[in-house]
Amino acid sequence: MGEDKQKNSDLIDAGRTGADKTGAVDAEKIKHIAHLARIGIADEDADRYALQMNSVLDYMKILEEVDTTAVEMTLQVNGLNNVTRPDEVRTEEKSADLLGVSPLPKISGQIAVRAVIKED
Amino acid sequence: MNKFLTLREAARGIDEKKIKPSELTEELLAETGRLNSDLNAYITVSAEEARRAALAADARQASDSLLSPLDGVPGALKDIVNTKGVRSTSASRILADFVPPYDATVARRLLDAGLVLVGKTNTDEFACGGSTEHSAFGVTRNPWDRERVAGGSSGGSAAAVAAGTCFYAVGTDTGGSIRLPASFCGVSGLKVSYGRVSRSGVTAMASSLDTIGPFARTVEDLALVLEVMAGQDWKDATTPPREVPRYSMSLPDRPEKVMRGLRIGVPKEYFVEGLSPEVEKMVRAAMAEYEENGAVLKEISLPYTKYAVAIYYIIMPAELSANLARYDGIRYGLKPEGEISDIIDQYYKTRDQGFGPEVKRRILTGTYVLSAGYFDAYYRKALKVRTLIKQDFEKAFEDVDVIMTPVSPNPAFKIGEKMNDPLSMYLEDAFTIPASMAGIPALSIPCGFSAEGLPVGLQIIAPQYAEEKLLQVGHAYQTLTDWHRRFPKL
After folding, report:
1. Does the beta-carbon distance from A53 to B365 stay under 8 Å?
2. Global ipTM
3. CATH at residue B197
4. Average model confidence (pLDDT) for chain A?
5. Could you say which of A7, A33, A97 has the minimum Cβ distance to residue B306?
6. Does the active-site annotation cover B153?
7. Under an 8 A CB cutoff, do B331 and A102 touch?
8. Which long-range contacts (CB under 8 A, 24 or more apart) does B60-69 make?
9. CA-CA distance, B71 to B51, in Å (whole number)?
10. Could you tell me if residue B109 is inside a domain?
11. Is B78 known to be catalytic?
12. Quick check: A107 contacting B, CB < 8 Å?
């Protein structure tokens, strides 16, 4: 039990003493990921996010000690497969109500967005 | 004073016409008005809707046509549960003015049973956090100690019940977000089996883990609420066609009926060095109470426990980053400040201004672990370890009926204490995440108070869909103890 106690206190205490500064992401990488997620991020915030993400990624290294070669993935837990229902139209919400939630202008039942394709 | 009655007692009073729903509602709205500016348990108080519902319940009471035991009883919903016509913010700036055009299934079912909605409770933004400090609407204070957090993410729901502003409240639990605040606020809270309660209309966080469940003062009250909330819903394909037992009808009148011969697993991985000795003492005393009444304690091992937090912070952000992609400022949400150059810039600015730091952190982590080159190392690996954690529980339940553990290593921490150290905050969920990974139900009930007067919770975990058994086991303890009958001085 003594050894288990030690191992598990690592679980509770890991990361409290600071991150591994040689971790996987830097500010530039953060900016790239932020672009993929379509979040604009200020330069000074990118540094902070990099530091915090590295501390979390570093913690995840404990997974390397688990041998998962013969283990199946768990994607869902309730055992249901291919749930279907009859293809019937059921309209409870009105489209005007749904459109009304958008902050953008509406033009003939559609949301007006900025042009995606630009003229030269 | 009715505010600290149990839901059952309030329901009986209404049924026997000793309590009028509208008077009860006024009493609780007055308490809410008195306390909310300090506690910040509610983002929105829906006084008008509550009064209207209470008057309708008055009429049904007068004509002996009450809809259910919940009819006319004030309750609250976490603000990620969407309510038609009542602002539902998910505690985010990006949805600060969002008034949903429809009700979540769980809201609809409770309203149809007679819910008097006091208001929408505070939470960490998009349920992302363990302290309710990550709310765009400010932190919820713990009714037992205003300097401390109420836990999270359903901290508003827990504090609302603890402070006597409602008789029950709905929360959500993805990695511990019902159990942790229940423990920190000294109320009872139930995380159900994945799929037991429909997620339709509840803002999605991590879709393979999200569950919706009740808070109340007693386990009996949880049973009364759950039997209304639970069951199959065509709008959520992950709800199985399983019958919903009348949970409140099968609770034992004498504790030994449940406790005698009950096999309780005590997993050694949860009683470790980081656990506060005070919390350990109270949890062990609670288990001794069961033992004295005929239960059998058995030390067990759940060897993959220590990997649960690591895989949670891979799987959850991965699913969250996909779910939150829908907040693009087009179909819902915020109109960003500043000049917008093109549609990409609009996404950038909407999401930068709309999301708070913790949500951004998680979206970034999720995007990262799903990106090419890292998918196998993080995401696929995590899903495999999830299998091992699930198997830990399946093996354990071959020999025991329930598992008992602490809910968290420590009682409620001070506001601000962990805000700059996300990992430290994440580790508060080390004891609640494993059951979430396995999709199995778990209860948090009060089992004592620390020397500083802070509540401590006992976690009871049961096999998949064994909510009936779980509630019986929890109720039996509350017939022998009165930790759940202590209330904060407010």
Report:
1. yes
2. 0.89
3. 3.90.1300.10
4. 80
5. A7
6. yes
7. yes
8. B60/B114, B61/B14, B61/B17, B61/B20, B61/B21, B66/B14, B66/B15, B66/B114, B67/B112, B67/B113, B67/B114, B68/B113, B68/B114, B68/B228, B69/B7, B69/B8, B69/B11, B69/B15, B69/B224, B69/B248
9. 13
10. yes
11. yes
12. no
Q: Is A89 on the interface with B (CB under 8 A)?
A: no
Answer yes or no: do B237 and A83 touch at CB < 8 A. yes
H or E element in which residue B265 lies:
strand B263-267
Q: Which of A7, A53, A74 sits opposite B387 (nearest CB)?
A: A74
Which residues lie closer than 8 Å to B233 by C-beta, 6 or more apart?
Answer: B105, B198, B200, B239
Looking at CA atoms only, how far is residue B78 from chain A in angstroms? 20
What token pair was written down for B422? 């996300």
Question: Which tens digits make up the pLDDT trace of B230-272?
Answer: 999 999 999 999 999 999 999 999 999 999 999 999 999 999 8
B32 in Cβ contact with B68 (< 8 Å) = no
Q: pLDDT digit string (tens) for B269-314?
A: 999 888 999 999 999 999 999 999 999 999 999 999 999 999 999 9
Q: Which residues of A touch B347 (CB under 8 A)?
A: 38-39
CA gap B427, B308 in Å, rounded: 10
Please name the helix (run of DSSP H) or strand (run of DSSP E) that holds residue B8, with its range, or none: helix B7-15
User: Chains A, B: CB contacts under 8 A, how many?
Assistant: 206
Catalytic pick among B78, B120, B191, B418: B78
In angstroms, rounded to a whole number, what is the distance separating the alpha carbons of residues B89 and A8?
A: 38
- What tens digit of pLDDT does each residue of B170-189 get? 999 999 999 999 999 999 99
Question: Measuring CA to CA, how many Å separate B53 from each of B42, B66, B131, B163, B329?
Answer: 19, 12, 32, 22, 34
Give the count of domains, chain B.
1
Candidate from A12, A15, A113 with C-beta closest to B274: A12
Structural domain for B181, as ranges: 7-259+406-414+442-485
B219 or A85: which carries more pLDDT confidence?
B219
